[in-house]
Amino acid sequence: MTTRKEVLEMLSAGEIDVDRAAEMLAQAHDPEPEPEPQPEPVRAEAPVETHDAPKARNGGRRWLHIHVSDMETGRSRVKVNVPLGLLQFGMKVGARFTDEVNQEMIDNLVQALHEQSLSGTLVEVEDADDNERVHIFVD
Fold it and tell me: Could you tell me the pTM of the whole model?
């Protein structure tokens, strides 16, 4: 039995036509790929923390949550939870690709995050056309 690679090589060499290649591909057998060796897990003696990551009042990490839900059922459609430290990094990188966000805006937001003055609901939007509620909040 031929492998998919062999069938594609025959097709590219003009030895078989497209219809015959499709038939052969349907019957082709590829050998099982060898499993990749898994690295041993690394155990840290203490959690590694960056000094830039904002902390919640209780000492844990702070998060930006973006939740999209169905307005009728309340059922969740999308949930995105991003650590604020990663958000800061992403904003700094993203600012390099747009003129709409300048460094001063990023600095002000990062300062507000460090001072923990940003918390709770930031934005809540209801889209009646799509029957969706978007809730963005920080905790």
Answer: 0.49
Residue whose C-alpha is closest to residue 84's, from 102, 111, 103, 123? 111
Separation CA 84–CA 78 (nearest Å): 19
DSSP string, 40-54: PPPPPSS----SSS-
Assign residue 14 a region (left: φ > 0; alpha: ψ between -120 and 50; beta: otherwise): left
DSSP secondary structure code for residue 61 in this structure: B
Distance (Å, whole) CA 44 – CA 123: 37
Q: pLDDT by residue (tens digit) across 8-58?
A: 888 888 888 888 888 887 787 655 555 666 666 655 444 443 434 445 555
Beta partners for 124?
135
Give residue 79's pLDDT.
Answer: 94
Q: Is 132's pLDDT higher than 90?
A: yes
Rounded-to-integer distance, Cα 68 and Cα 135, Å: 6
